[in-house]
Specification:
325 residues; mainly alpha; Cytochrome Bc1 Complex, Chain D, domain 2; two-stranded antiparallel sheet; two-stranded antiparallel ribbon; 11 helices; globular
Length: 325
């Protein structure tokens, strides 16, 4: 007990001395030094998405950006923004935000072009953030926007031209609600119109991890909806004839992925992947399923206008064994 009292007394004495020192120094702690303007400038690099304020001097072209992207970015994001492994996909996904599995990319989701510059400059490339010059960042941003068909291949971006770009999903966000905003924040009814009929069936294996309801779920108008214990096996889908699949691949994919591409601006098959013969299509079935059927990352920016029905057709063919005869 005496030891505890002596420690407490010592702490109190230190606090009294520190308090007197702070008071004598005009509320200063007596250590450190004011940050210099150069030090502040190293942190003060944010960019305003609406106005582009904060974008630095410099410029970069799509062609320059492609070279930088292939050297510094493609190892994670793929040569054409299709994503490598589990790294983010940067291109494609337009029109998928209302789908059950939306693909959020720069072209489909990103709201403001200037903040793309801010993010690339601040955080990329992943192993060495802030290692790119201002010109290099403008060039990489130009290339990414070109991959999403937002700027042409001849584009050269600077602060003014980048701030003038209106992204496809710019108006797809709701305004934040602040304390001074008197508008209602929550809906007063569970469902408004065109609600899905009950019962709802859980088909995700997340149920086993206890992150989705496994017994009941609240439905429209406060009703309780019974959840199925396990989904029934999907009915077998007959395989479509390969001739139809080959026609889709020829129109939507092989214009680039061929020994002699016909798509303007494509001199050789990207990544050496060719889909101009039945054998090559069959060999690439897994990649086609991943990039065109599931993720919609291909065709790049959906430049060849591949439809949802065509993706489903190709997916059914792959699901049935990817037979060419």
């Amino acid at each position: 007990m005496f030891k505890s009292l002596s420690i407490a007394a010592g702490v109190a004495a230190v606090l009294l001395i520190a308090g007197a020192t702070i008071a004598d120094a005009g509320q200063r702690y007596g250590f450190g030094q004011p940050a210099t303007q150069t030090q502040i400038a190293g942190w003060n690099i944010d960019v305003n998405g609406l106005t582009g304020a904060g974008l630095p001097p410099g410029h970069g072209s799509v062609a320059q950006g492609q070279q930088i992207f292939e050297a510094r970015c493609a190892v994670c994001h793929g040569d054409f923004g299709e994503g490598a492994g589990r790294y983010p996909v940067l291109a494609g996904g337009q029109g998928t935000l209302t789908a059950e599995r939306p693909l959020k990319t720069v072209g489909s989701y990103w709201p403001y072009a200037p903040t793309l510059y801010d993010y690339v400059r601040r955080a990329m490339p992943f192993p060495a953030p802030q290692s790119l010059t201002n010109d290099q960042v403008y060039a990489v941003v130009a290339y990414i926007l070109n991959l999403n068909n937002i700027v042409p291949s001849s584009a050269v971006l600077d602060a003014k031209s980048l701030a003038a770009i209106k992204m496809p999903n710019r108006d797809g966000f709701e305004a934040s609600t602040w304390k001074h905003d008197t508008r209602p924040v929550l809906h007063t009814v569970a469902c408004m119109k065109n609600c899905k009929p009950t019962p709802v069936r859980v088909i995700s294996d997340l149920v086993s991890l206890h992150v989705t309801p496994d017994e009941t779920e609240r439905g429209d108008a406060g009703s309780t909806v019974e959840m199925a214990a396990a989904p029934k096996a999907a009915a077998a889908v007959p395989a479509p004839p390969f001739s139809k699949v080959q026609h889709v691949i020829a129109q939507r994919c092989a214009v680039c992925h061929a020994q002699k591409p016909t798509q303007p601006g494509i001199a050789s098959a990207p990544l050496g992947i060719m889909l101009d013969t039945p054998a090559r299509i069959k060999a690439a079935a897994g990649m086609i399923e991943s990039q065109a059927v599931k993720s919609h990352a291909m065709p790049l920016g959906n430049a060849t206008h591949m439809t949802a029905q065509e993706r489903a057709l190709v997916g059914a063919w792959i699901e049935a064994g990817a037979k060419t005869r």
